[in-house]
Design a protein that fits this description.
The protein has a single domain, classed as TolB, C-terminal domain (Neuraminidase, 6 Propeller), CATH 2.120.10. The protein has 1 helix and 28 strands. The longest helix has 14 residues. Strands 3-2-1-28 form a 4-stranded antiparallel sheet, with no helix packed on it. It has a 4-stranded antiparallel sheet with strand order 4-5-6-7. The N and C termini lie far apart (40 Å).
């Protein structure tokens, strides 16, 4: 049966839980000021707990947390993720103030956040006795997308006008299919084993990034435009697309591909053309992509010589280090304002 967690978070959940259970004091649960100056590069992720980085300054969010997604709107910084207070609870932070989306008896996770006309949209799921029930919350009110009879996950959300798009996967008969929901109506973008990790809507076109099992048995990084698949790799090595962004008429996708030794190379593709961010000396991960003023920003992480992952982002291919390498860290989402 499919794992309950989003595939790109599960490794880090397992690695950092020992830190989460032992770290920080009650004071850390109070407000964290994230509103000093919103212009610049905003990054969130994990550094033993949920962390926010901006212009060389790092701030921990709620004690025992993971930050999965960030969105900046005018003077406000929004972060979606998970708080570990008695159980896993879907949480978002507005300017550092935590808002719990479910009660203490409901295990849940918030995976992606989007702000539209001052409305707060968050994709995620609640755990049921058998399968996840995926949903999104609009201004804290849940909108349920599945009934829990089949496993599913919601990994990304995008809002255009009055339309709400959520991307993830739906798993009938134990085989996941890359799926997106528009206003609650589901659409499969693949008919074979696949997952959707990210969604972006431009005009009337829907772009979904993820991966699909190819004919050689390897995973192929790809994106779908209005359901038509575009393969980014040839299927000779496992590859995964984690994030998609449209800038003007160009399609940018961030992800990873294994090399011949089994190490993962962080990279992005612009209109299908590959740009490697790392050289394979250490395994690395590209999690999220954002483009502004023709500059490409990609957040992720890379293993260091001690076996820890270092959170970082790349600005037009040049790495900016965010964590000191003493703890497991990963930059899961980036937003440039």
């Amino acid at each position: 049966m499919e794992k309950k967690y989003n595939t790109k978070k599960v490794l880090f959940l397992l690695m950092i839980i020992p830190y989460l259970l032992t770290s920080c004091s009650k004071e850390d649960i109070e407000k964290v000021d994230l509103t000093t100056d919103n212009f610049g590069v905003h990054v969130v992720g994990t550094n033993a707990n949920g962390y926010y980085w901006k212009d060389g300054i790092s701030k921990q969010l709620t004690n025992s947390s993971i930050a999965n997604s960030i969105f900046v709107s005018e003077n406000d910084v929004y972060v979606a993720g998970v708080s570990f207070e008695n159980t896993y609870r879907a949480t978002y932070w507005k300017n550092g103030i935590p808002h719990l989306l479910t009660d203490e008896n409901t295990r849940s996770e918030a995976s992606s956040i989007f702000i539209n006309d001052s409305n707060v949209y968050i994709a995620g799921f609640e755990y049921s006795s058998k399968n996840n029930i995926i949903m999104y919350w609009k201004n804290d009110e849940p909108v349920v997308l599945t009934d829990g009879k089949n496993s599913a996950s919601a990994n990304s959300i995008f809002v255009q006008g009055n339309d709400v798009y959520v991307a993830g996967q739906f798993t009938p008969n134990y085989v996941p299919f890359a799926t997106y929901w528009k206003n609650g109506k589901s659409t499969f973008v693949s008919s074979v084993y696949s997952k959707a990790e990210s969604i972006f809507v431009k005009d009337s076109d829907v772009y979904v990034a993820g991966f699909e099992k190819g004919p050689k048995g390897r995973y192929v990084a790809k994106y779908w435009k209005n359901g038509d698949g575009v393969s980014l790799t040839d299927g000779s090595k496992d590859a995964f697309a984690n994030s998609i962004f449209m800038y003007v008429n160009d399609v940018y996708v961030a992800g990873i591909e294994n090399d011949s030794t089994g190490k993962t190379i962080a990279k992005y593709w612009k209109n299908g053309k590959e740009v490697a961010l790392t050289d394979g000396t250490n395994s690395a991960f590209a999690r999220s992509i954002f483009v502004k003023d023709n500059i490409v920003y990609v957040s992720g992480s890379e293993y260091n010589s001690t076996g820890k992952t270092v959170a970082k982002y790349w600005k037009d291919g040049k790495a900016v280090i965010l964590s000191d390498g003493t703890k497991w860290a990963d930059a899961l989402s980036i937003y440039v304002y």
